[in-house]
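User: Can you recover a sequence for this backbone? Please restate the input before giving your answer.

Assistant: Of course. Working from this structure:
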């Protein structure tokens, strides 16, 4: 589940009244997601014909000083024609408000479903939309450093410590040294833009083969575009437990990406290490969450081993995987 905070009907109605979107009709907590609380909001709409929105309350892992960056980015990308939800501004023009000491934003609802087992056609479209987003973001004036880069992964795993990692799974402690190796080999001069950096299937809504929305930009930052492709490759091209590599999906993603933006030789050569860094990014955050989240918490903990298996795969096969 991901509704960490209970809001009464009165509180929600008062909040919605601050926006020019009609009156609150219903609010349903959304189970998906792990980071923020989300509600599907229905209102009477400005014209009485009804309207839907997503209300997000920012709970953790978000530095609130970054919120204007994330919300302005949505507006910028939507204005450039990317399938990204706009931020609804309140009557005073603010993109977010405060409720019970927490920041909340009202976001445009976009239709579509997240797929569990993507087809090649879907993977191709996701690759293409990712590249379009990278190009559209080049005109966005603000920037934000990646706070979850390879150095952070190495540091987080070291801080978790061998003993706590071994308690989760015996194979996990080895990732401390592997993350250090990857951080030392990390390329620093690849072409950059704003990247999504968490483009998992649950952050893409689809209608058939078409991408109807990219959502959850709360890890977006300025970094290498090829790294974003590597994250997306790691997130889409395996069975969810990380055991089975789906070669046709990996290929379709890269082909779709290159149908819009060709990778440079340097980017292609860097993909094996970028993919290892991508896997480690999720091994480290999942291991940290695993240790910090009580086993009986309402949130389902995500298995770090699903990304250790991807990491092993990229260490073994990465050299040949991304050759043109
Ligand atoms: N703009 C949107 N339009 C339609 N559904 C959305 C939108 N934003 C979020 N959702 C729904 O809410 C769920 C959780 O949102 P998400 O931003 O991924 O939460 P979290 O940051 O907690 O992972 C998504 O899986 C999707 O079902
Ligand atoms: N995609 C990450 C977790 C981030 O969660 P999200 O629900 O905010 O996308 C993972 O799978 O570890």
């Amino acid at each position: 589940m991901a509704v960490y905070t209970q809001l009464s009907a009165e509180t929600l109605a008062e909040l919605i009244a601050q926006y020019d979107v009609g009156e609150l009709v219903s609010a349903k907590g959304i189970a998906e997601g792990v980071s923020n609380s989300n509600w599907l909001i229905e209102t009477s709409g400005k014209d009485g014909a009804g309207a839907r929105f997503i209300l997000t309350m920012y709970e953790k892992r978000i530095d609130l000083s970054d919120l204007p960056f994330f919300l302005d980015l949505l507006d910028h990308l939507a204005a450039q024609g990317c399938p990204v939800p706009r931020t609804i501004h309140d009557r005073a023009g603010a993109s977010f408000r405060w409720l019970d000491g927490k920041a909340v934003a009202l976001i445009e609802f976009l239709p579509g479903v997240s797929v569990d087992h993507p087809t090649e056609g879907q993977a191709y479209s996701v690759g293409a939309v990712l590249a379009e987003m990278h190009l559209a973001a080049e005109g966005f004036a603000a920037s934000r450093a990646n706070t979850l880069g390879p150095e952070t992964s190495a540091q987080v795993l070291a801080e978790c410590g061998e003993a706590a990692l071994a308690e989760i799974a015996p194979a996990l402690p080895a990732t401390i040294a592997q993350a250090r190796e990857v951080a030392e080999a990390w390329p620093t001069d690849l072409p950059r833009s704003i990247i999504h950096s968490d483009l998992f299937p649950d952050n893409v809504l689809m209608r058939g083969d078409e991408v109807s929305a990219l959502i959850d930009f709360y890890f977006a930052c300025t970094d290498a575009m090829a790294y974003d492709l590597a994250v997306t490759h790691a997130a889409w091209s395996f069975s969810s437990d990380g055991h089975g590599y789906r070669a046709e999906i990996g290929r379709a993603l890269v082909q779709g990406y290159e149908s819009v933006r060709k990778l440079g030789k340097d980017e292609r050569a860097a993909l094996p290490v970028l993919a290892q860094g991508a896997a480690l990014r999720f091994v480290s955050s999942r291991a940290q969450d695993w240790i910090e989240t009580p086993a009986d918490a309402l949130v389902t903990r995500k298995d770090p081993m699903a990304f250790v298996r991807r990491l092993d795969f990229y260490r073994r096969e990465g050299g040949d995987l991304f050759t043109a």
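That completes the design. The pocket of adenosine-5'-diphosphate (ligand 1) is lined by residues 2, 30, 32-36, 38, 54, 85, 107-110, 114, 202-203, 213, 215-216, 218 (CB under 6 Å).
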